[in-house]
Amino acid sequence: MTKEEAKQIIEEKTKRLNEHNYKYYVLNKPIISDFEFDKELKELEQIEKKFPELLLKNSPTQRVGGDITDNFKVVKHKYPMLSLGNSYSIKDIEDFDKRAQKTLGLNNIEYVCELKYDGVAIGIQYVNGKLHQAITRGDGDKGEDVTNNVKTIKSIPLVLNGNDYPLEFEIRGEIFMPLTAFEKLNKERKKKGMPLYMNPRNTTSGTIKQKDSSAVAKRHLDSYLYALYGKNLPFKNHYEGVNESASWGLKSPTLQNNYISICKNIDEIKNFIDYWTVKRSELDFQIDGIVIKVNNFEQQQELGYTSKFPRWAIAYKYPAESITTKLLDVTYQVGRTGAITPVAVLKPVLVAGTTVKRASLHNADQISRLDLRIGDTVSIEKGGEIIPKVTQVILSERQSTSTPFNYTLTCPECNSLLVREDNEAQHYCKNETGCKPQILGKFLHFISRKALNIDSIGKETIEQLFENNLITSLDTLFDLTFENLIPLERMAEKSVTNILKGIEESKRTPFEKVLFGLGIRYVGETVAKKLAYHFKSISNLASANYENLIEVNEIGERIAMSVKNYFENEQNLNVIQNLKNHGLELMINEDKLVASAGVFDGMSIVISGTFENFSREELKQTIESNGAKNASSISSKTSLFVIGNNVGPSKLEKASKLNVKTVSENEFIELLKN
Ligand code: IVH
After folding, report:
1. Which of 592, 459, 442 is nearest to 516 (CA)?
2. Is residue 387 scored above 80 in pLDDT?
3. Cα 382 from chain centroid (whole Å)
4. Is pLDDT above 60 for 593?
5. Catalytic: 116?
6. Which of 78, 81, 82, 116 should be mutated for ligand 1, with most atoms under 8 A from CB?
7. Which atom of ligand 1 is nearest to the CA of 315?
8. What are the DSSP calls for 394-453, one per residue?
């Protein structure tokens, strides 16, 4: 075979096999047998082996994976990957419709109803018709680059069809494991005596983070892609966009005649929900509800977003599935703050496709409310949450010999007497510095992604360091040395260097994240930010009295007391002094703020659209740290309107009518510099 001939055959076979792949995986309508397909694939593989330089980028032989990713790169999403508000009744949907009608000043809105696929969210970018990058949802702002793995999913094209797709766009959707693939996988595992996987969703989520992409290729993952994002997309509504994406070869729900539907009123939405309540058991994948979206893009823009959800979409969740089983025992978990959570140990049962062995019991009151006794038959429910709940005791099945349940008086880990303070639902172990799960929990929180983000250290290492007396209080993490670490089990030169590098780099963590990492009770991420920006340094914060604390916007009594108590404790002050000595930044670094504080003192600023240089959160933060307030809608009190991409015309009109100064993102940056 000459090279010229080989080139032609490779091109033909690649094209033909890709078409068959498309028919099989995207349309679910194969026209040749697996045998015929495999035969031709082998032929192609052989010719490619002889002429590797002729291998095409979109060759179906490349779907078997092989690329290894050691560390998934963390990438910022171009458009934040938001979640959806949940609802459990038609009444909630009616309220959602009324709110939207009111905001838009309309009495009829066109919606699109879709399946809510229960999988793993993914954002896939296509550039010039080629799959460029695939990113997991992560925290919504940044996700992990899992491109190599996603490339092995056969329903996701490597190259698009035709030529009328936008040159750059992102398509978002859900990756999932079909039920038949999941069952087959577990059957094989059972045969090999391996532990079984819990459910398709968790298995998908584990699979998509495998380092070896050839392992992913073997898992038969599938997908549906349900939303388009990009600059100047030529569509006026959501449905049109996803429908058009099907013609580029993407697996759009519009390829099926009943997975997605335009609904012109609540009755039509209700019909869609009712239809799938019955039919969902016939699908080869799990759905956990229906998503209802406002169709028109301009209306979506006008409705806007809360900090977490779009105001133009809502999820209707199917009711939780409930089942009965036996309560075998109650154990207790100790959290990082010392909070004790009782956990029901159950006779394993299958609920909503997963085996349930444990369920949360929340607190002592919940146990008395249920009048729970060991040996009882109980109802358990699995709703939106991952952890199921015990909802009631079947009293008719209670054994006459059963005795009332006594809640533990002591910590299951360190035996200290538990305390339950007034107004608290939870019992607490107060042995903060001597109770192992509390200490480990504090360390894990300290190094977690939203705090010091030391990803070279995991749970096992923290446990190992603690067992070896190498870490006691948070600051001692910075005392670790190469000589301390290298003799430990499972440590090698590379891992030790990595750990120390991670620790060293974490010294540059911004103040608000360190503050969050200290794990002060009730000081979550947002409160930490507020306190950091208000007090500017840890010394100011430590010397603040109750009144100073309560003055801060949104800081209430409970938080103020907790902060005060924290800084009254000698040991905590010691930790902070040591962290300072180690060079951690325990103050707001003014140079790093984009501008000197106060540029926008006292102003009320509205932002709209998506931005190139900031996430919406960062932009809001910048506005606040420069003295202004973020407002959500334009009024005569608005001082400045900052517009990004895709701003709805109605907002622009309103701003111009009210004579509100309107600036682009770049103009805003210029203002900051002045
Ligand atoms: S739209 C801003 N459509 O459900 C709108 N999401 O609970 C974001 N999901 O994060 C999503 N099926 O991972 C949308 N047809 C669908 C969906 C869907 C499943 C997932 C998605 C989202 C989560 C929210």
Report:
1. 442
2. no
3. 20
4. no
5. yes
6. 116
7. 7
8. -GGG--TT--PPPPPSB-TTT-PBEE--TT-SSEEE--TTT-HHHHHHHHHHHHSTTTT-
Q: What is the CATH number of the domain that holds 16?
A: 1.10.287.610
Q: Residue 83 C-alpha to ligand 1 middle, in angstroms?
A: 6
> Residue whose CA is closest, atom 13 of ligand 1?
121
| Number of domains making up the chain | 6
Residue 163 lies in a domain: yes
Based on the number of CB atoms within 10 Å of its own CB, is 201 exposed (0-12), middle (13-18) or buried (19 or more)?
Answer: buried
Residues 230, 144 share a domain? yes
More confident residue, 111 or 385: 111
Write out the H or E segment, with its range, that includes residue 273. Answer: helix 266-279
Q: Say whether both 517 and 536 belong to one domain.
A: yes
Please work out whether the CB of residue 588 comes within 6 Å of at least one atom of ligand 1: no
Per-residue pLDDT tens digits for 325-357:
999 999 999 999 999 999 999 999 877 666 789
Q: Burial, 649: exposed, middle or buried (Cβ in 10 Å; 0-12, 13-18, 19+)?
A: exposed
CATH number, domain containing residue 196: 3.30.470.30
616 shares a domain with 629: yes
Ramachandran sector of residue 597 (left: φ over 0; alpha: ψ -120 to 50; beta: rest): beta
**Which numbered atom of ligand 1 lies nearest the CA of 260?**
15
Residue 317 near ligand 1, beta carbon < 6 Å: no
The radius of gyration of the chain from alpha carbons, rounded to an integer in Å, stands at: 28
What does the alpha-carbon distance between residue 120 and residue 63 come to, in Å, rounded to a whole number?
20
| Residue 98, amino acid | K
Between CA 416 and CA 377 the distance in angstroms is 32
- Pair (522, 559) in one structural domain: yes
Does residue 81 form part of some domain? Answer: no
Please state the atom number of ligand 1 nearest to the C-alpha of residue 313: 5
Identify whether residues 452 and 553 lie together within a single domain.
no
CB atoms within 10 A of CB 419: 12
The atom number, within ligand 1, closest to the CA of 288 reads: 19
pLDDT at residue 614 in the model: 79
**pLDDT of res. 596:** 43
The CA 356 to ligand 1 mean position distance, Å, reads: 25
Retrieve residue 440's tokens: 């480990």
Q: Are residues 478 and 567 in the same domain?
A: no
Structural domain of residue 564, as residue ranges?
511-592
How many angstroms is it from 226 CA to the middle of ligand 1? 8
**Residue closest to 64 by CA, chosen among 216, 280, 279, 288:** 216
In this structure, are 216 and 264 located in the same domain? yes
Looking up tokens 């993952």 gives: 221
